C-alpha cells in the first residue's frame, strides 16, 4: 500500500495531498482503505460527481452514489465553480491541521489544466494538487487503485512523494509535477488498461510506434 509514505507525512505534521489516478475502482476503494487504516481523508469533489450535471441530478441522483462513497471519508470539500478558491482555502486549513486531502487526477477537479506527454500521446491534467501541496508545504503522494484480474483483489498503491522543491518558477514546478504524475500512471495503465477511465482524454501526437500504450478493445 505504501503506508510508510502516509506515516512519514503524518509524523512531519503537514498532512499530505493524495493525487488519485482515475481508475475504475478508485472512488470507493481508496476511501474504504484509508478509513480502514485510520487515516482521516477529506476528498475534493464537484457537485456534478456521480451521475448528472443537471440541477435535478445533482440534488436527487448524485447523492445515491456519494452517500455510499463519503460514508468512508472524513469529509467532502465541495468545489464552488463561482468561488473555486474557497475549496483550496478549506483544503489548506485541513493540511495545516495534519489531515489528508485527496483529489482525483484528470481534468475534472480543477480549472487550470496542464498539457503533458502521456505514452506517445498528449493529455491534460489539473494543476490543483501540486499547487495546493506547494502552498501548504505538504507532500504530494500519487495514489493508484487497481483490481487484479486473477484474484479479484483491489490493490491501493500510495507512491513516493513527487519532488516539488527542484527550483524554477511555480509554473515550471507544476509542469514537472504533472509530467511525473502522468509518467507514474503508465505501469498501471499498461497492466490494467480496461480500468483506466481517461482514454478519451488522450490527444494524438507523432511518436514512434513502440512508444504507444495499447488501447483496450472497444
What does this protein structure show overall?
By secondary structure, this protein is α/β, with parallel strands linked by helices. It has six helices and nine strands, in the order H-E-H-E-H-E-H-E-E-E-H-E-E-H-E. It has helices at residues 3-12, 26-36, 55-70, 85-96, 128-136, 170-191; strands at residues 16-20, 41-45, 75-78, 100-104, 113-118, 121-126, 140-147, 154-158, 203-204. The strands form two sheets. It has a six-stranded mixed β-sheet with strand order 3-2-4-1-7-8, sandwiched between helices. Strand 5 and strand 6 (121-126) form a beta hairpin. The protein is globular and about 45 Å long.
Task: Please render the helix and strand layout as text.
Elements: H1 3-12, E1 16-20, H2 26-36, E2 41-45, H3 55-70, E3 75-78, H4 85-96, E4 100-104, E5 113-118, E6 121-126, H5 128-136, E7 140-147, E8 154-158, H6 170-191, E9 203-204
Parallel strand pairs: 1-4, 1-7, 2-3, 2-4
Antiparallel strand pairs: 5-6, 6-9, 7-8
Helix pairs in contact: 4-5
Strand-residue proportion:
15-25%
Helix proportion range: 25-40%
* SS-derived structural category: alpha/beta
Q: What's the count of strands?
A: 9
Number of helices, where a helix is a run of at least 4 consecutive DSSP H or I residues = 6
What is the H/E order? HEHEHEHEEEHEEHE
Low-pLDDT ranges? 207-218
Q: Which geometry do the CA atoms define? A: globular
Q: End-to-end span in angstroms?
A: 31 Å
Determine the mean pLDDT.
86
Strand order of the largest sheet: 3-2-4-1-7-8
Give the biggest sheet: 6 strands, mixed
Rounded radius of gyration (Å): 17 Å
Amino acid at each position: 500500500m505504501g503506508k510508510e509514505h502516509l506515516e512519514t507525512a503524518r509524523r512531519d505534521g503537514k498532512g499530505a495531498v493524495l493525487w488519485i489516478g482515475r481508475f475504475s475502482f478508485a472512488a470507493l476503494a481508496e476511501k474504504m482503505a484509508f478509513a480502514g487504516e485510520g487515516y482521516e481523508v477529506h476528498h475534493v469533489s464537484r457537485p456534478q460527481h456521480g451521475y448528472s450535471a443537471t440541477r435535478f441530478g445533482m440534488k436527487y441522483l448524485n447523492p445515491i452514489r456519494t452517500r455510499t462513497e463519503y460514508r468512508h471519508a472524513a469529509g467532502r470539500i465541495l468545489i464552488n465553480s463561482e468561488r473555486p478558491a474557497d475549496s483550496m482555502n478549506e483544503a489548506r486549513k485541513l493540511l495545516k491541521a495534519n489531515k489528508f486531502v485527496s483529489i482525483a487526477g484528470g481534468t475534472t477537479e480543477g480549472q487550470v489544466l496542464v498539457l503533458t506527454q502521456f505514452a506517445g500521446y498528449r493529455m491534460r491534467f489539473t494543476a490543483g494538487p501540486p499547487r495546493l501541496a506547494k502552498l501548504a508545504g505538504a507532500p504530494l503522494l500519487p495514489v493508484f487503485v487497481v483490481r487484479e484480474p486473477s484474484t479479484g483483489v483491489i490493490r491501493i498503491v500510495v507512491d513516493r512523494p513527487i519532488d516539488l522543491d527542484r527550483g524554477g518558477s511555480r509554473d515550471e514546478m507544476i509542469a514537472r509535477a504533472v509530467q511525473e504524475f502522468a509518467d507514474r500512471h503508465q505501469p498501471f495503465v499498461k497492466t490494467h488498461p480496461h480500468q483506466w477511465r481517461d482514454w478519451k482524454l488522450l490527444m494524438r501526437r507523432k511518436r514512434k510506434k513502440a512508444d504507444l500504450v495499447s488501447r483496450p478493445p472497444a
